[in-house]
Amino acid sequence: MTDWRSRPRGARAGDGQLLGLALVAAVTGVLVTKVLPSTGSPWAPVASLLPLWLGLAAPAALFLARARPKGLLRWRVTDLVWGLGLGLALRLVQGVLEGADLQPFPTVQNVGGPFSSRWWLEQVVASGVVAPVAEEFFFRAVILVTIYRLLRRNVGAVAAGAAALLCSAGAFVLLHEAFALLSVVAAIQLFLLGAVCAALVLLTGRIWGAVLVHVVYNATFIGLSMIGTYAG
Span 6-33, mean pLDDT? Predict the structure, then answer.
């Protein structure tokens, strides 16, 4: 069965323009999110992220509608297996890199009290679901697939895949760097997450495994925070 990875004629007409529009939309979303003034409302932190999510989700929806990457949205049970396994593995790697065995469990921070409605919105919904889905569809659908298809005809599948993986994972790190100064370890962790998700999309041709890896990776931190709060 063929999919977006094996189109003999390479990229669809307009893929380059779609990529450019996507990057402009993402940068605009970042800038608007950063300059929005805080209203002091308890929901302001989540509301301020709406321009960013729109800047990622809108070009992803446009890309899927116009570029039609065949097979990218297929679902297989193995996607669940990969998502759970790799998500947990990456969290363990993160723990090793940060020496988590020598540190206490993370705890729920001051977001309206442990497990309040605000905490559920900011942590579980925003960080655990919305952010991973929006980011994966932008970085692993728009960026990864477009760069792969633009390069594949001229440089071959392996080189195109490597370039797409590096660009996708690198852009993923830059997005997080735009909102907080990252340590070297944090940057490595985010690059590994982006690279693993990109490799999974390239190897399977499907995006849902990568989405689940990202969801599991974020959800495990939320779970550890809950454990640390109860233990404390």
Answer: 82
